[in-house]
Design goal:
This protein is an alpha+beta fold. Strand 4 and strand 5 form a beta hairpin. The radius of gyration is 18 Å and the shape is globular. Bound molecules: 2-oxoglutaric acid and fe (ii) ion (FE2). The site of fe (ii) ion has 3 residues, from loops.
């Protein structure tokens, strides 16, 4: 769908999928103890190409809208949420915006969730068709697992945008 939407040759999609690793992870959010924060998971964008999330019938996941407002995602047994991650931002040369999300524990029930996370096995790079004069290349090709290691470093935590800090191209010095 994404490749169709941007008019990118489908063969690139096949090779991207062939070079993608998946990680399945499950989470359990216990109820916060007295005086403990109810922040289950700090606000972040995923490092992935995309993430597929599923949760039990307990609210908690919130996504941030463009206007900065946090909104609840209401769970259902049949719902799978697909979130774009940082690697798709690079692939699409900033056209696809990774979705910022967090988990807040408010219900008096334990929350369970499951996520399928996708990572490039090779270098992640911007799709050539999505680079032109109007949209110059904004990122250098990067090693996805190298980015995972960078993600929790002090430099990454201090930066405004971790993926830009890791492999962004800065044109600001050019005139
Ligand atoms: O538990 C959830 O619903 C979200 C998990 C998540 O955002 C993550 O692992 O990156
Ligand atoms: Fe996440």
């Amino acid at each position: 769908m994404v490749f169709d939407g941007y008019g990118v040759d489908k063969r690139h999609c096949e090779s991207l999928l062939e070079l993608t690793n998946y990680m399945l992870r499950s989470f359990k959010y216990r109820l916060p103890h007295m005086n403990e924060s109810n922040l289950g998971l700090f606000p972040h964008t995923d490092t992935t190409y995309f993430s597929i999330l599923h949760q039990n019938n307990v609210t908690g996941l919130q996504i941030k809208l463009k206007n900065g407002e946090w909104v609840d995602v209401y769970p259902s047994h049949s719902m799978f949420l697909i979130l774009a991650g940082d690697a798709f931002k690079v692939w699409s040369n900033d056209r696809i915006r990774p979705c910022e999300h967090r988990v807040i524990i408010r219900e008096k029930k334990e929350r369970y969730s499951m996520g399928l996370f996708s990572f490039g096995r090779n270098m992640v790079q911007t799709q050539e068709e999505l680079i032109d004069e109007e949209h110059p290349k904004r990122y250098k090709p990067f090693d996805h697992y190298g980015y995972l290691r960078f993600y929790r470093t002090e430099k990454a935590l201090k930066s405004k945008c971790r993926i830009k800090e890791y492999c962004g191209i800065d044109y600001s010095d050019e005139n």
